Amino acid sequence: MSSSFGTLYRVSTFGESHCAGVGAIVDGVPPRMALAEADIQKQLDRRRPGQSKLATDRDEADQVQILSGVENGLTLGSPIGLLVHNKDQRPGDYGSMSDIPRPSHADYTYRAKYGIHASSGGGRSSARETIGRVAAGAIADKFLREEYGIEIVAWVSTVGAVDAPDVDIEQVTRDQVDLNPVRCPDLNAAKGMAEEILAARQDKDSVGGILTCVCRNLPAGLGEPAFDRLEARLAQAMLSIPASKGFEIGSGFSGSRMRGSQHNDPFVMKGDRLGTLSNRSGGVQGGISNGEPVYFRVAFKPPATIGREQLTVDYQGREVTLEAKGRHDPAVVPRAVPIVESMAALVLADLALIQRMRA
Q: What is the CATH number of the domain that holds 267?
């Protein structure tokens, strides 16, 4: 099922960018866990549009409603239904583009696959679909934090040519990440990133970037070799996010330039457990967590829909000049932070429940 993700902790999302609403069905949440809409709303507020000049002007409160699976503040163990109504749709903004596939957008590929596609917005390819992921991920995040003490923190580490090299993955918190609208805890770098995004917006253009994410306090043993390795599941989750184009874990591609003597992580005792002196493995060895922080990076392309004129062709092959209308993000990375955290939480919650079965 193309709109479902997970094995024991399973999520199915629904809705298009300009339909009546979007949401998710979450199956596998353990019973008797305290859960309220406020627990989910925190992450949705971080994802929602209209937060600053760095994001789309679309004005959505994105208030979540729990439809099922919770009674008297406790989960029942049955599927949890989550709904967010779309309030600020403007399908008319897309009228002039209905016969023109936007360059690098999913308009053409959806039509090629299904013979039809949503006439406004990106339909299921829109980032609006990620509301269901974030809502479901917020529940998974709460479960992981309360059951295992796991902390998941993502931040913007690159926008365009501006990098943030001075972030301590052992100590960074969500509060630090949220100190500025770019969601970069390196305040000097955040200023340059904001300027990069605003310059792209001024030029009716867009800019890409990279997110870094760390998952701390994981127990050793999570991951299901050979095909459901922890890093493989994380890669699938991250590359399923709209506009994602790359994934690397630990030393990533830079590790390919090292020798084994440089790259290996020697074992040491850390209290009553084995740990590693360095962490170029990114907390994963043989597809299984080793108890060290799991950290990875996700690359996002510039948003495809831009206001600048582009020479392209319509569906009949006739040359046209497209100047996209509507409200669109000049960069996706600031709003992608809670999406990356949520997808990581979905993976870890699922693998934690699978590992529990062995106890």
A: 3.60.150.10
